[in-house]
Structures are given as C-alpha cells and as structure tokens.
Amino acid sequence: MAFYCLTCHRTFKNRVDDMKERRCIFCSSPRIAPMKAYEIESIEKMSPETLRKVRTSYHLLRMYENNALLVLAAHGIGPESASRILEVPIKNENELLERILANEVEFAKNRRFWS
C-alpha cells in the first residue's frame, strides 16, 4: 500500500503489516494517509478531488486505525466506501472481512457498466 505524508508531502510504499507505528518514514510525522499505489502523484499535480480523498483517508486512519488500513487495501474500495463500511459498529474481524468481501464482489459486478 502507498502512503502520503501530509506534513512533508512525500510518498512511500509499505506493507500494511509493517505499519504498526503509522508514521512517515521520512519525517516521523503521524499525519499519513493511505492510498492505492496507482494514486500516487506529487502534491503539485494533485487535483482537488484527490486531495479530498487523501484527507478522508487520513481521518479514517486516525479514527479506525488498523481496520481502516484493511478496508482501504481492498480492491475497489475507496475512502467513501470505506467510511460507509466502518461507520457501522463491528463486532469482530470476521464481520469486517465479510463486509470487505461483499463490497469487492459488488465492485466486480458493477465495474463492467462504468465505461
């Protein structure tokens, strides 16, 4: 997964399992936002929509910690879908994984109609 630091504006890639500290590897700031690897752009090239997604991802990580990383790492789930998944109380990790899988299946079903 890729991460964007809101403090030093640098990006880095790391495994979700290795992100126990959830800090920037360059400046040690806790203000990092998880992103998909293909979404990485420099701050100068970021559109307002991308910046909004980065901020939403950052807030999800602050509120839901590792659960947010799991949801955002899933295929076809962005910050908006992740916030819908995470806003409903979760009893255990299996329930969270079931919700993630259901959203991935829904994404796969609907993707062919997008273009």
Question: What does the model show?
Answer:
The protein has 115 residues and is mainly alpha-helical. The protein has one domain (2-40, 47-113). Helix content is 45%, strand content 10%. The protein has four helices and three strands; from the N terminus they run βββαααα. It has helices at residues 48-64, 66-73, 79-87, 93-110, and strands at residues 2-5, 11-13, 32-35. It has a three-stranded antiparallel β-sheet. The longest helix has 18 residues, at 93-110. The radius of gyration is 14 Å and the shape is globular. It starts with a strand and ends in a 5-residue tail after the last helix. 22% of the residues are buried.
Q: Return the average pLDDT rounded to an integer.
A: 90
What general outline do the C-alpha atoms trace? globular
- Helix count equals 4
The proportion of residues in beta strands is 5-15%
Give the termini distance in whole angstroms.
26 Å
Radius of gyration: 14 Å
Broad structural category: mainly alpha
Number of strands: 3
Query: Please, how many domains?
Result: 1
Biggest sheet: strand arrangement? 2-1-3
